[in-house]
Design goal:
single chain; 428 residues; Hypothetical protein af1432; 2 domains; 2 strands; binds fe (ii) ion; HD_domain
């Protein structure tokens, strides 16, 4: 099998997933995508040109991965320091830049908080700031000004005034003029606050449908892994470790190349639902209390629901989301048992535990390989054949896991020096 999946389904699923980080602000990314589209259209850009701006809108804050960062950008004027304002755009670019279809969107996102008056500043002289970054910036700030508890047309005057005050300083003047035209039409305000918003975005993107296969799916699963794992230094390389050990085990257990690749993608995305778990719980330096553990249990439920919104993902969704199910039926969130857990789900469960035990956690040190294997062998609710395969190939699989994690660790460490260099943080 090699399923073909429309990229837009994956992007919308990721867009909804990143809004889970702050439950108080839902649909921010979709609204910003739509507002950007309306402004760019009013400025005379073609549908074809605007497509990358819409993609950028849908994912623009994917680099603001923790709640503090995420909450601060929801103030109209934020980022007293240059670093605070621009670092999440830069991280967003880093997260997205390797997926071919998102390369232009990543460039737009990188500069989405550059003020219009800053473009002539020395810092940005060597940067090629896309014009769409300015439109995205404006759309983003328009959305920040919306009060979800007030009737939308009643807010039009205030929002337009605030935006006009920022013309030429924060915002590109032509984009502000276009916004004024769009803002005079009530449908625009109703669209951004109605439940038809997602349908509108799907309609806008329908002429640009691009499909991917299992090989390219890895690029998008990799984005999911970067978004999830960047939230905590303790898990920065967790998903890649799970992905590489699970796909190695899958190959050894007779999976085809295509299915092993799908297993790799499932490993990268298995903790997607952790976006709804606060960092205070993810990083708690002790064991979780009952309340925290109940919250934690929801992560595989959300992994399932997020991936279920991407038709055609099939077994990747199941392998990813069933990693806390147990053969005796006592796992979560579905309480599945050995009759319904296939080999792929069993492989992922073993790989998740294997990788987690070899990593540092806030409440314990990384376990030795010998102790890890001993502990896993003693867990009766994990599959016997998968455990046996891990035992037989432990050195090789551990090497694969460790090497993949080291590569990711190194590339994560490089982003901030690169950011300093690109924006001349030390030179000015
Ligand atoms: Fe932002
Ligand atoms: Fe935003
Ligand atoms: Fe995990």
């Amino acid at each position: 099998m090699d399923q073909y999946i429309p990229i837009i389904d994956i992007i919308i699923a990721l867009s909804s997933a990143i809004d889970l980080i702050n439950p108080n602000i839902s649909n921010h990314h979709k609204r910003v995508a739509y507002i950007s589209y309306c402004i760019a259209k009013e400025m005379g850009y073609s549908e074809d040109e605007i497509k990358d701006l819409v993609l950028a809108g849908l994912l623009h804050d994917c680099g603001a991965v923790n709640l503090i960062e995420r909450s601060s950008i929801f103030e109209f004027e934020f980022g007293n320091s240059f670093f605070n304002r621009h670092s999440h755009g830069y991280k967003g670019w880093f997260i997205l830049r390797d997926a071919e279809e998102l390369r232009s969107a990543a460039e737009i996102i990188k500069y989405h908080h550059v003020f219009w008056k800053e473009i002539s500043h020395k810092r940005f002289q060597s940067c090629k700031i896309p014009k769409f970054s300015h439109i995205l910036h404006l759309a983003d700030r328009i959305d920040i000004l919306i009060n979800p508890n007030q009737e939308i047309l009643q807010q039009k005057k205030y929002i337009s005034k605030m935006i006009r005050n920022g013309k030429d300083i924060m915002f590109m003047p032509m984009a502000v003029d276009a916004f004024e035209n769009v803002a005079s039409k009530p449908y625009f305000w109703f669209d951004i606050t109605s439940t038809y918003l997602e349908g509108q975005i799907r309609k806008i993107m329908s002429p640009h449908k691009v499909y991917i296969n299992s090989e390219l799916l890895i690029q998008y699963a990799d984005i999911a892994h970067r978004i999830i794992d960047f939230r905590s230094k303790f898990t920065a390389t967790h998903s890649i470790g799970v992905a590489t050990s699970a796909s190695a085990l899958a190959s050894k257990l007779g999976f085809s190349d295509c299915d092993s690749r799908l297993m790799h993608s499932a490993g990268l995305m298995h903790d997607l639902g952790k976006l709804c778990i606060p960092e205070s719980i993810l990083e708690k330096p002790g064991s979780l209390d009952n309340y925290e553990f109940s919250l934690m249990k929801s992560h595989t439920y959300y992994t399932y629901r997020i991936l279920d919104s991407i038709p055609g993902l099939g077994k990747v969704r199941d392998w990813a989301a069933f990693h806390h199910e147990k053969l005796d039926g006592t796992g979560y969130p579905f309480g599945l048992d050995s009759k319904s857990l296939d080999l792929g789900s069993r492989i992922l469960a073993v790989s998740d535990m294997f990788t987690a035990l070899t990593e540092e956690r806030p409440y314990r040190h990384a376990m030795s390989l010998k102790d890890t294997v001993k502990l896993i062998n003693g867990v009766s609710t994990l599959d016997y054949d998968v455990k046996h395969c891990l035992n037989q190939n432990i050195e090789e699989i551990n090497d694969i896991r460790r090497t993949s994690q080291e590569i990711v660790f190194q590339s994560c460490n490089e982003i901030f020096p690169e950011f300093d260099e690109e924006f001349n943080l030390h030179a000015l």
